[in-house]
Design brief:
seven-stranded mixed beta sheet, single chain, 19 strands, 401 residues, alpha+beta, globular
């Protein structure tokens, strides 16, 4: 039989074949992953609708393949299921403004069960590096778990040629897609970045006080839900930052809903699931949703719905360090806000009319914008409003969302 690339999603007609997960001669099971296909929005595993033996692979890794193009010729045993639909689970995507994801390097030449291969992909482990204890050199799940936990032994790696001082890797897959998206954003949007500092002492206090309450409900409360609510207040007062430019119609489309994309660190890079309708959710509701999408992103359980519909993006590099960054806009959005590290430092504050040096929690926020839509003065006014609510988060209680 011929297996053709199934539908990948609405309006998606092709994708890049990032990686084969089977090879010619493999005997495969029903629903076993066949390959990874990357589209503009997501990288997804394509499951097999049949059981049988692979005879021929009709495309090469790095090749762009069309929907309904023949991918595999196989000798099939039993019935063939209908083609998978666009409801397939997808791997975390690469946000247009974030760092690249590394493709998983699981060796297809290593004997292992589909379940073990899937776990290896989730852990980002190359099965070729795991010492096998199963029959005929098969890597067992226990071998993989010991390897991940540090108790296993690595299989001997091939030695590099003594004269090799360079590595060459194909420019394909996620790295290539990142390059295309970054170039698109830089080519289309007129970037500029505005940076402002903020005294976040009260933000730290309110998060610390609320943290125990959240934990009692099984919720991990970070600063991000509060930052998102402050963003919504400022965006309502400066709506051009929550818009897109419809170039075909020559219209600025202002959004009166607030879907905030959030950068999430996973084992193989950053992805940006979208928290929808932030304006209508409480801080604890947002925190619970963030906790959910972070867990699913790291388990490769995000769906296409999680990854689309954003109106603005929030990127948080504060846990890593650095003073501030100049993030690249997640085109066609107009703005991306960077939340940077919080540190304690001495600052001069006027207290009862007297200047005093006090220790405060301090940070910087950086926002990159499309100068075609947003002028510098409007960016400054947005940040002024936003930081007012960050420095005095109790004011959020006065807002009607």
């Amino acid at each position: 039989m011929e297996f053709r690339l199934p539908e990948l999603g609405e309006g998606v007609n092709e994708g890049e074949l990032v990686k084969w997960l089977v090879k010619s001669g493999d005997v495969i099971k029903d629903d076993q992953p066949l390959c990874e296909i990357m589209t503009d929005k997501a990288t997804m595993e394509i499951p097999s609708p049949f059981a049988g033996k692979v005879e021929t692979l009709h495309a090469k890794e790095g090749e762009v393949v069309k929907v309904h193009q023949v991918l595999i010729t196989a000798n099939v045993s039993g019935e063939v299921k209908a083609e998978p639909t666009k409801k397939q689970e997808v791997a975390p995507t690469v946000a247009l403004t974030t760092a690249p994801q590394a493709a998983y390097a699981t060796s297809n030449d290593t004997l292992a069960s589909p379940a073990t291969r899937r776990l290896a992909r989730e852990k980002g482990v190359d099965l070729g590096q795991v010492a096998a204890t199963g029959p005929n050199g098969r890597v067992l799940q226990e071998d993989l778990e010991k390897f991940v936990g540090g108790g296993g032994v690595s299989a001997a790696a091939p030695k590099a040629a003594p004269s090799s001082r360079e590595d060459r890797m194909p420019f394909k897959g996620l790295r290539k897609k990142i390059a295309e998206k970054m170039r698109l954003s830089k080519d289309k949007a007129a970037h500029f970045t505005y940076v402002e500092e903020a005294d976040v002492t009260e933000l730290v206090k309110i998060r610390t006080a609320a943290k125990a309450i959240a934990e009692g409900q099984g919720i991990k409360l970070t600063y991000l839900p509060i930052v998102m609510k402050a963003m919504v207040v400022a965006l309502k007062k400066h709506p051009n930052l929550n818009s897109t430019l419809d170039e075909a119609a020559q219209e600025i489309v202002v959004k009166h809903y607030y879907n905030i994309g959030l950068s999430v660190q996973t084992a193989d890079g950053l992805t940006a699931p979208v928290i929808k309708n932030v304006e209508s959710k409480s801080i604890l509701q947002i925190a619970k949703e963030i906790q959910d999408v972070v867990a699913r992103a790291r388990a490769k359980k995000l769906t296409m719905e999680d990854l689309t519909g954003g109106t603005i993006t929030l990127t948080n590099a504060g846990s890593i360090g650095g003073l501030f960054a100049t993030p690249v806009i997640n085109f066609p959005e107009v703005a991306i806000l960077g939340f940077n590290k919080i540190s304690r430092k001495p600052v001069v504050k006027t207290i009862n009319g007297v200047e005093k040096v006090v220790i405060r929690d301090w940070t910087y926020f950086s926002i990159s914008l499309d100068h075609r839509i947003v002028d510098g003065a409007e960016a400054a006014e947005f940040m002024k409003t936003f930081i007012q609510y960050i420095e005095t988060p109790n004011l959020l209680l006065l807002e009607s969302f």
